[in-house]
Amino acid sequence: MLPENAKNIVSAVEAKMKDALTFLEEDLKTYRVGKANPTVFNNVTVDYYGTATPIPQVASITAPDARTLAIQPWEKSMIAKIEKAIIDANLGLTPSNNGETIRCIVPALTEDRRKELIKKAKAAGESAKVVVRNARRDAVDQLKKAQKAGELTEDAQKEGEDEIQKLTDKNVKEVDNVIAAKEKDILTV
After folding, report:
1. Helices (H), the chain
2. Which CATH number covers residue 90?
3. Residues 156, 98 share a domain
4. Domain that includes residue 88, residue range
5. Which of 57, 97, 103, 167 sits in a 20 to 30 Å window from 67, CA-based?
6. Distance, CA of 130 to CA of 175 (rounded, Å)
7. How far apart (Å, rounded) are the C-alpha atoms in residues 114 and 133?
8. What are the tens digits of pLDDT across the range 101-119?
9. Which pLDDT band, with edges at 50, 70 and 90, does 188 fall under?
């Protein structure tokens, strides 16, 4: 049974690891994989009265069909700014407007673009693993300091390190699963 201070360290590292996984999943949602998905605009910002604001905060975005994204700005004056932001974001989408709504037709992914997205997804996965491993290292250091300060017994320190290693292994495996699922999604035509 872990002492309270060791439990606190383990639960803090578990939260950091979960945050890394959540961040990875959110990041992967913004990858355009041939289907119309409004989340591709989550990281695209537009100048809204001098403030860089994400497009979903200045317009409603819908996917009327599997290949089209429709952006309805809440102010007509934003149409040109939103179009420019989409082009500048280099998403591979070409916006067109009818004075009221901006439409983006989502082109099918080329083989090169798919490979590029897979490479990008794997890099994001590696970054998430680095965050998980850094969290493990920091937590193990905290346990060692607590043991040296006499706040933990050596057995409690070892038990805490074992718990942290199990969490690390579980989260690294989860990152691999998320990346594998995204890779499958990208390769699905």
Report:
1. 4-29, 79-88, 111-148, 154-187
2. 3.30.1360.40
3. no
4. 38-105
5. 57
6. 11
7. 28
8. 999 888 777 788 788 888 9
9. confident
